[in-house]
């Protein structure tokens, strides 16, 4: 009985393709579908960094009208301390395209660190930029850059001055493992 409930949940959540009525718009993030290995550099301050190997998994959900991903740093096969270190996270993003506003609503949830973010995502040239605020109200920006079918670079930034400038906090370089 337990297995059928779990299978039913997976079947209700996941789908194999984007919704046909917005497939073109969903392509903005559609390249992310699949499994990725990643290397992260967390910038503790101007001098110190911490590195971690991680994994990213993404798929279509909710009848193909949204994309959900899971970001895990350090990777599940790596040593994980009881207390998360700076740059450790195990969270999920729900990305939903809004055809009325022509933007993406982004919701990040990381129960490991109790971090929750709401952002608006859109294309900026060949990049994807997601903007929102941290828990203190400071502007944050998450950017996908250098996107190819088999790799991407992700930058997590925070503005200490209301958006006039940004400080790089986290840089991730990811490689596709499978589609």
Written overview of the protein:
The chain is mainly β. The chain has one domain: Lipocalin (Beta Barrel), CATH 2.40.128. Helices cover 11% and strands 55% of the residues. It is built from two helices and eleven strands, in the order H-E-H-E-E-E-E-E-E-E-E-E-E. The chain has a ten-stranded antiparallel beta barrel. Strand 7 and strand 8 form a beta hairpin. 23% of the residues are buried. The model has no long low-confidence stretch (mean pLDDT 92).
Radius of gyration: 17 Å
Structural class computed from helices and strand pairing: mainly beta
Shape verdict: globular
CATH class: Mainly Beta
In total, how many domains does the architecture comprise? 1
Q: Which percent band covers the strand fraction?
A: over 45%
Strand count: 11
Oligomeric state of shown chains: single chain
Percent helix: 10-25%
Q: If helices are DSSP runs of H or I spanning 4 or more residues, what is the number of helices?
A: 2
User: Under the CATH scheme, which architecture would be assigned?
Assistant: Beta Barrel
Largest sheet features: 10 strands, antiparallel, barrel
Low-confidence stretches: none
CATH topology: Lipocalin
C-alpha termini separation: 31 Å
């Amino acid at each position: 009985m337990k297995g059928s409930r779990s299978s039913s949940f997976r079947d209700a959540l996941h789908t194999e393709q984007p919704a046909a009525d917005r497939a073109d718009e969903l392509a903005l993030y559609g390249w992310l579908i699949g499994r990725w290995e990643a290397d992260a550099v967390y910038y503790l301050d101007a001098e110190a960094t911490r590195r971690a190997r991680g994994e990213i998994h993404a798929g279509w959900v909710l009848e193909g009208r949204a994309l959900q991903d899971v970001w895990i740093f350090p990777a599940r096969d790596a040593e994980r301390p009881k207390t998360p270190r700076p740059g450790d996270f195990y969270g999920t993003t729900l990305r939903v395209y809004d055809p009325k506003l022509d933007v993406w609503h982004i919701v990040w949830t990381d129960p490991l660190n109790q971090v929750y973010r709401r952002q608006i995502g859109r294309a900026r040239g060949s990049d994807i930029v997601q903007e929102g605020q941290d828990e203190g109200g400071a502007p944050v920006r998450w950017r996908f850059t250098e996107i190819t079918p088999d790799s991407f670079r992700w930058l997590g930034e925070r503005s200490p001055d209301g958006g006039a400038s940004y400080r790089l906090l986290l840089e991730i370089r990811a490689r596709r493992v499978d589609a």
